[in-house]
């Protein structure tokens, strides 16, 4: 995987949605989340002695199925996995394994309205989770997914609050605890608080500006 190929995939999804009526000015919502999360992943991977390319591209592309989710009524993890599996199965797995911290997947009934329209997508995800024990890259994507939103890098609490608001729900039980568990794991692994890497990442020119209210 290289940057121009990954960026091409992202731009293809952007153009698909714009062709379906999305305003280009709202693209920051997707762009800032994935590019911010990917830079945090790279910074953590560097300190952890992990493969920085795998960490960066797994995180950059973890939501690549998101754009088509509402058109195809499929779980975005499955769509992303299908898009990437031939190109790079290590990166493709991030699509299926990023959504549920520590792969704590609840029942289909519990996940139905938030994640799964189709039972077969749930079954495929559950099977994949069972047959792919978590590795540090999976955990890193899960953590970084929770540290970047449309407006830049955020704390676990800020991200959880935004997530709940967006879905019109209370913060799901256990979500904050699981995210802190992930962050504690990497804080220990790299010997510094992951939040201290935010300044270094934010200094990079990676975010698209967005309309500010008030
Ligand atoms: Fe994400």
Labels describing this entry:
214 residues; mainly alpha; Hypothetical protein af1432; binds fe (ii) ion
Q: Any idea what the radius of gyration is?
A: 16 Å
Low-pLDDT stretches are none
The CATH architecture designation is Orthogonal Bundle
CATH class, please?
Answer: Mainly Alpha
Q: Name every ligand kind in the structure.
A: fe (ii) ion
Total number of β-strand segments? 2
Strand content: under 5%
Could you give the order of strands across the largest sheet? Answer: 1-2
Q: Could you report the average pLDDT, rounded to the nearest whole number?
A: 94
Q: How do the helices and strands follow one another from N- to C-terminus?
A: HHHHHHHHHEEHHH
Helical/strand content category:
mainly alpha
For the report, how would you describe the main beta sheet? 2 strands, antiparallel
What level of helicity do the residues show? 55-70%
Note down, in words, how this protein is organized.
The chain is mainly α and 214 residues long. The protein has helices spanning 3-19, 28-48, 52-60, 66-72, 76-84, 89-97, 108-111, 119-131, 136-145, 156-167, 175-190, 198-202, and strands at 148-149, 152-153. The chain has one domain (3-202): Orthogonal Bundle (Hypothetical protein af1432). It has 12 helices and 2 strands; from the N terminus they run αααααααααββααα. Strands 1-2 form a two-stranded antiparallel ribbon. Strand 1 (148-149) and strand 2 form a beta hairpin. Helix 2 (28-48) crosses helix 9 and helix 9 (136-145) crosses helix 11. The model has no long low-confidence stretch (mean pLDDT 94). The site of fe (ii) ion has 4 residues, from loops.
């Amino acid at each position: 995987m290289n940057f121009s190929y990954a960026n091409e995939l992202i731009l293809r999804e952007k153009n698909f949605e714009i062709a379906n009526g999305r305003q280009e000015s709202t693209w920051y919502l997707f762009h800032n989340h994935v590019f911010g999360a990917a830079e945090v992943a790279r910074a953590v991977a560097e300190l952890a002695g992990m493969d920085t390319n795998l960490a960066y591209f797994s995180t950059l592309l973890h939501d690549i199925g998101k754009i088509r989710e509402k058109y195809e009524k499929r779980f975005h993890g499955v769509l992303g996995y299908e898009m990437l599996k031939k190109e790079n199965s290590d990166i493709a797995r991030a699509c299926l394994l990023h959504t549920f911290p520590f792969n704590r997947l609840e029942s289909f009934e519990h996940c139905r309205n938030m994640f799964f329209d189709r039972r077969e997508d749930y079954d495929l995800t559950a099977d994949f989770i069972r047959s792919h024990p978590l590795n540090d890259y999976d955990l890193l994507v899960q953590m970084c997914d929770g540290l970047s939103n449309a407006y830049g890098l955020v704390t676990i609490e800020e991200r959880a609050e935004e997530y709940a608001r967006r879905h019109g729900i209370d913060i799901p039980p256990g979500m904050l605890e699981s995210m802190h568990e992930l962050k504690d794991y990497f804080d220990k692994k790299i010997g510094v608080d992951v939040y201290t890497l935010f300044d270094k990442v934010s200094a990079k020119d990676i975010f698209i500006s967005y309309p500010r209210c008030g």
